[in-house]
Amino acid sequence: MSPHVPQPPNPVRRAPQDRIAIGELAARSGLAASCLRYYEEIGLIRSERTAGGQRRYPRSTLRRVAFIRAAQRVGLSLDEARGALDRLPADRAPSATEWNRVARTWTRRIDEQIAELERLKRRLTSCIGCGCLSLRKCGLYNPGDTAASGGAGARYLLGDAPAGQEAGAAVTDRRP
Fold this sequence. Notes:
Radius of gyration: 25 Å
Order of helices and strands: EHHEEHHHH
């Protein structure tokens, strides 16, 4: 019989059923295990290690991963998601009040995205300031490729205004 070797105390003690393996977290979250390991590496989620070195995640990690995915869907970067997660409890699901406080910070971001999509929608059928000068309209909207002075890309879709218009205004057909 081998002597019992004391183990250092685990900083967060949970019942085994309150922790899930990386495979289960991957299956339930819809993310690859490699993605979860990356999230852990950059501090978005945390795991505990078993005596055998296997990762075990608190069940509340499912909500954190869902939060990260939702943040990405509204266009937040992983750094922005981390900033939001830093305002939520790490060891349990957030309360409704905690969640609402963080979710409200997304409102401005979502409103900006909606406005950008509306501008894109209005401009899809008109000159986008790409510099192609191949459409009949480009000679009217972007004569001599003046949009190129704003930089690379579809300048009018990126928010630059054609000469004589304010930024964000829709380009309308000005053919005689």
